Amino acid sequence: MKKVGILGGTFDPPHMGHLIVANEVAEALMLDEVRLMPNHIPPHKKLNVKVTAENRLEMVMLAVESNPRLKPEPFEIGQEGTSYTYETIKALREREPDVEFYFIIGADMIEYLPKWHKVDELAQLIQFVGVKRPEYNEETEYPVLLVDIPQIDLSSSLIREKLKSGKSIKYLVPEKVEKYIEENTLYES
């Protein structure tokens, strides 16, 4: 059976921290691949209206192209309305019944699991994989397989703030993502 990790998020923009998480979990769990899946409309945060779902998917595609083990997963971008992980995983399992899915979350999301839409049902469909993040607690009542990875305190919001204030994001995002952001003036104030 093929083992596939799913790393969901807004990827607004995708950064080196996302790629490190995906690669490290793939290595630790010997996954066949990890798919980075931008959500259409996240249930828990407001998105920048200037940066479209298509922009975020394009940035993910650019971010992963140098690593054959990492792939973009456009499923949620093609859906209408709010992206709920339960609905997505149900659909992915129907589409790919021969795949064992591992859903990768940061410690910030581990704390938030009790508030997820149909989390009990979701826990029956996938294996949660949690990665540590500075200043977050990994303890939960849900079955989360913890993977120890190098901790980098990097976030998309930090990158957006740097861009808004005219600061460099060199080495925080892949070079092609940085170029795409510049060419499309995505995060200017």
Task: Provide the fold topology.
Blueprint: E1 2-9, H1 16-29, E2 33-38, H2 53-64, E3 70-72, H3 85-95, E4 99-106, H4 107-112, H5 119-125, E5 127-131, E6 144-147, H6 156-164, H7 175-183
Parallel strand pairs: 1-2, 1-4, 2-3, 4-5, 5-6
Helix pairs in contact: 2-7, 3-5
Q: Can you describe this structure?
A:
The protein is 36% helix and 18% strand. The termini are far apart. It has seven helices and six strands. It has helices spanning 16-29, 53-64, 85-95, 107-112, 119-125, 156-164, 175-183; strands spanning 2-9, 33-38, 70-72, 99-106, 127-131, 144-147. Strand 2, helix 2 (53-64) and strand 3 form a beta-alpha-beta unit. By secondary structure, the chain is of the alpha/beta class. The radius of gyration is 16 Å and the shape is globular. The protein has a six-stranded parallel beta sheet with strand order 3-2-1-4-5-6, with helices on both faces. Helix 2 (53-64) packs antiparallel against helix 7 (175-183) and helix 3 (85-95) runs parallel beside helix 5. The protein has a single domain (2-183), classed as HUPs (Rossmann fold, 3-Layer(aba) Sandwich).
Beta fraction of the residues?
15-25%
How many beta-strand runs?
A: 6
- Basic shape: globular
Q: Rg, please?
A: 16 Å
Order of helices and strands: EHEHEHEHHEEHH
Q: Determine the fraction of residues in helical runs and give it as a percent range.
A: 25-40%
Strand order of the largest sheet: 3-2-1-4-5-6
CATH topology: Rossmann fold
Going by CATH, the architecture would be 3-Layer(aba) Sandwich
Helix/strand-derived class? alpha/beta
- What is the number of domains? 1
Q: Report low-confidence residues grouped into runs of 5 or more.
A: none
Q: What does the largest sheet look like?
A: 6 strands, parallel
Mean pLDDT, all residues: 92
CATH superfamily: HUPs
Number of helices: 7
Distance between the termini: 47 Å
CATH class: Alpha Beta
